[in-house]
Input
Amino acid sequence: MLHRLRDGAIPREVLAVCRRLEEAGHRAWVVGGCIRDLLMGRAVNDWDLATSALPGEVQRTFSRTIPTGIEHGTVTVLWKGEAYEVTTLRGEGEYTDGRRPDSVEFVHRIEDDLERRDFTVNAIAYDPLTDELVDPWGGLPDLEAKVIRAVRDPKLRFGEDGLRVLRAARFCGTLGFALEPETEAAIPGSLETFRKVSPERVHEEWKKALKKSDAPSAAFEVMRRTGILDVTCPDMAALDGDAWARTMARLDAAPADVELRLAALWVDVHAAPARVDAWLREIRASNQERKRVVHLASHAAVPSADALDAPQLRRWLRDVGREHVNDVLALGRADGLDVDALAARAEEELAAGVPLLPKELPIGGGDVMKALDVEPSRAVGDVLEHLLERVLDDPSLAERERLLALLPEAYRQVTQP
Output
């Protein structure tokens, strides 16, 4: 059931912005996703307002504003330490770039403004000063039915902004809704417009689907069966039925961490790390994001605790990395594996502080060069790697004097033909 807009649902600061516009002779409505989420009893983070005031009138009404998208009617109002996007009621012209309208026309009726929006559940407005809900496109019944339906003709909506097909899929995941059949049927024929969408915008939608969904598989199922995934990630779309089913189960079971869930999507693709990295570059992922996702996807195979003796466990920890152990174990749990025994052994080993990298040894390159009277060379690093292998086999060797005593032998080992 939908939640009523009870007293206190709209923050005082939002009411104050609406009241200030009213005092200046204009009307204001809270619109779009924030009203949808309020009606569903969900938390609202961003408040969007529509107003009958023209952009210049909005700027004159408030002392602090930013002309965020003033050419399209949007002014950001800074009020009580918060920022609110206030957009003049508008209609829109053609979308030749598949992203933004070529022109906008300011209108006088809130109903005309709602007509341009993507989905019915996002085309609801609320006047908090008169307690009036405006729903000309049946968003309330669709909220009740948990359906994502395009406003008017879905082919027109998707042809205007190519990102809307991906938003439709994403809302199926984040809201737990089903896609209305006619709306879904319009997606395959709209993919050429979707191809015009910038990688950055696609990346943002993926992140929202992965982070804000209890069951992100709902979004990815829509992407796969409508062809969106063929455009965005052909490697993933090519998974066979069994591999796809495993991937979706792993995805839903993984913690709601964007990079961890991205890695979960790539496990069954069995792509080389370079391919995963190349795809992440294509969607404009950050360097940090790429590094973590590639590493986790490459080390997602979790061994059984019984299959590892102590030295093997330490080498597994070295390969995975201290900072990634819990993430890799989480991927194992998401695959339905019992990793508790491995987790307990890993925790004990890490707590013991055994060096896992050459830089963690109690001696460094300077010590090697001084003790052996050698110049900087690759052999110095090789000596430290050799000593680390000895320590991984026998942690009692991880003492400065014992390692210094092993240096001559280690040097011979790494420099002999």
